[in-house]
Write a structure and sequence with these properties.
Elements lengths: L15 H8 L24 H8 L5 H12 L6 H4 L8 E5 L13 H4 E9 L5 E3 H14 L4 E3 L5 E6 L4 H10 L12 E6 L14 H11 L12 E6 L11 E8 L3 E8 L11 E7 L4 H15 L10 H8 L1 H13 L4 E2 L14 E4 L5 E5 L5 E2 L1 H13 L4 E4 L5 E6 L4 H10 L8 H5 E3 L14 H14 L9 E4 L13 E9 L5 E9 L15 E9 L3 H15 L5
Parallel strand pairs: 6-7, 7-8, 17-18, 18-19
Antiparallel strand pairs: 1-2, 2-5, 3-15, 4-5, 4-14, 8-9, 9-10, 10-11, 12-13, 13-16, 15-16, 19-20, 20-21
The structure holds iron/sulfur cluster (SF4).
The site of iron/sulfur cluster has 12 residues, from loops.
Length: 563
């Protein structure tokens, strides 16, 4: 490259450039732009999302839905409510059918959306009574065209919801203690919990009271309904939730002097900048979990970055501050006391999914069963409720792996339950493929999607069951319709991120970027961590089954003793 004679000159006081600079008036130092942190005085909204939240607390949209929109219909909805505040009540417009993924990024929101909604029902801790299960099933068949998906955050999502039906749906849900409050939006989302909380043989404390208290105190509280972005929580004795990718996680640990309590982690999250949560090194007794949770969410509200949406998760603040400063601010500014130092928890060698027949501590058993990629229906959930009742139980749990458990079964009835579940499409002895494959919502309903996911996942599981029936290793496959990683792309053995790729004939087709070798829910330093995105490692959606089969066969051929 040619270099001009002036640019090659050193800028000493002897050069003409330096001499000219010396005579120029000094510029005032540039003020740092700031990240929009409220605690540092940045209270004016710096982007449209912040403006929407400031103009009107999103929780207030419920009254407009009940009093105006449900009566006047979809066309009457204010766009700022429709595409902003509705989310605080679990409502997203769903994608218009027939729009291919290549057009997702170029169309305006109103061109992408259908006049129906996805409605997310929050099920904190994944705990459902029989009555609640029947209510969701009934709403699905009555108002949601028989759709229902178990999400990897223990929610159930319904589709095809009309705004006219929303108040009646809320009435039915709330009559049985369920809600959609803050199921989506920049607020405290569902709290993940162990699907075997209260019944696990090895659990030392059931954290359900802390989950219930957090939901009762803070969910729907306007003081915490305008966060920089979503805030994800996990509270569990066992490491059977993906705690490392939550904004806050409490994980059970025995303190040598104080007994059982919880180890606190902060700053995890996936999407395009994945980060694992970090330990603050503190031990929190059960009774203090809600207060400490409030302290952490308050730090996020006050110090979280609000200028840019893609930097507005807690993980960026934790990464910038470091855990020492984060702990100091939590203790000094928010709790007014010092937290006790605590030991690191023991972590399992592989993720725990609770599938199959397993003992409870009271002598009864639970049965974990797998739908395919979390997809069920209202009809199926009604049948499940009948099966559960017929086997003497009234408790069901959803897992963060898109699976479900039936609790409290007498030993002599477990085989009958396994058979009955199989009869309604829920398999308690699934193939590794069915057991370990998850898929996000994808192009069928999601406006951000680039590719189809659920149907592809069902097809993939069927093909692999046919071709690799006796595959005897654990191999997780997470299928995602775009980079947002709702089905945790980076945490699977094979993580798939939907994108448009070039097919064999040169045409642009649906495909996936592949991440290999991720894993969570187990000891750090063994195999936990994010999968590696391998440059150029892509597959078309059509070739996906062959691709996974090749990876699986190569793995079998090359695995080492005990792997
Ligand atoms: Fe939608 Fe993308 Fe999330 Fe899938 S990963 S549900 S396509 S936003």
């Amino acid at each position: 490259m040619a270099v001009s004679s002036t640019s090659a000159l050193p800028e000493t006081a002897d050069t003409p450039i330096a001499a000219a600079a010396a005579t120029r008036p000094a510029r005032a130092p540039r003020r740092p732009r700031g990240e929009g942190q409220w605690a540092l005085g940045h209270r004016e909204p710096l982007n449209p999302n912040e403006r929407t939240k400031k103009d009107d607390n999103p929780l207030n949209v419920r009254a407009r839905i009940e009093n105006i929109y449900a009566h006047r219909g979809f066309a009457s909805i204010d766009p700022a409510d429709l595409r902003g505040r509705f989310r605080w009540w679990g409502l997203y417009t769903q994608r218009k059918a027939g729009i291919d993924g290549g057009r997702t990024a170029v169309l305006e929101p109103h061109e992408l959306e259908d006049e129906h909604f996805m409605l997310r029902v929050r099920i904190d801790g994944g705990q459902l009574s029989l009555e609640q299960l029947r209510t969701i099933a009934d709403i699905s068949t009555r108002y949601a065209r028989d759709t229902a998906d178990i999400t990897d955050r223990q929610n159930i999502q319904l589709h095809w919801i009309r705004v006219e039906d929303v108040p009646e749906i809320w009435r039915r849900l709330e009559a049985v203690g369920l809600e959609t409050t803050e199921a989506c939006g920049d607020c405290p989302r569902i709290v993940l919990g162990s699907p075997v909380a209260g019944v696990a043989e090895t659990e030392r404390i059931d954290p359900t009271p802390a989950i219930d208290e957090i939901v009762a105190r803070y969910v729907g509280d306007p003081a915490y309904s305008n966060l920089p972005r979503k805030f994800k929580s996990s509270i569990s004795w066992l490491a059977d939730t993906p705690y490392e990718v939550n904004d806050i996680a409490f994980l059970g640990v025995d303190h040598p002097e104080h007994g059982p309590g919880f180890d606190l982690w902060v700053g995890g999250g996936l999407s395009t900048n994945p980060m694992l949560a970090q330990r603050l090194g503190v031990w929190v007794p059960l009774a203090e979990v809600p207060d400490v949770w409030e302290g952490v969410v308050s730090i996020f509200r006050d110090y979280g970055y609000r200028r840019l949406r893609h930097r507005a998760r807690l993980k960026f603040l934790v990464a910038d501050w470091g855990v020492e400063k984060f702990r100091e601010v939590l203790e000094k500014e928010y709790l007014g006391r010092t937290l006790l130092d605590g030991p690191a928890p023991d972590l399992p060698e592989k993720p725990i999914d609770h599938i199959g027949v397993q003992p409870q501590r009271d002598g009864r058993f639970y049965v974990g069963a797998a739908p395919v990629v979390g997809r069920v229906s209202g009809t199926q959930l009604t049948a499940l409720a009948d099966v559960v009742a017929a086997h003497g139980s009234d408790r069901v749990r959803l897992t963060p792996y898109q699976k479900l458990l039936v609790l409290d079964i007498a030993e002599e009835r477990t085989e009958s339950l396994v058979t009955a579940l199989r009869g309604i499409g829920l398999e308690a002895r699934p193939s590794v493929w069915r057991r370990s494959t998850m898929a996000c919502t994808g192009i069928e309903f999601c406006k951000l999607a680039i590719v189809e996911t659920k149907a592809r996942g069902e097809e993939l599981v069927a093909r692999l069951e046919e071709r690799l029936r006796d595959f005897d290793a654990d191999l997780s496959i997470h299928i995602n319709g775009c980079p947002n990683a709702c089905a945790r792309t980076q945490t699977a053995d094979i993580g798939l991120k939907g994108q448009i790729v070039v097919g064999p004939d040169g045409r642009q087709v649906e495909g996936f970027q592949v991440h290999l070798g991720g894993g969570l829910g187990m000891a750090q330093g063994q195999t936990a961590g994010f999968g590696r995105k391998l440059r150029g490692l892509k597959t078309t959606a059509e070739e996906l089954p062959e691709y996974v089969e090749r990876v699986a066969r190569r793995y079998l051929a090359g695995r080492q003793e005990g792997e």
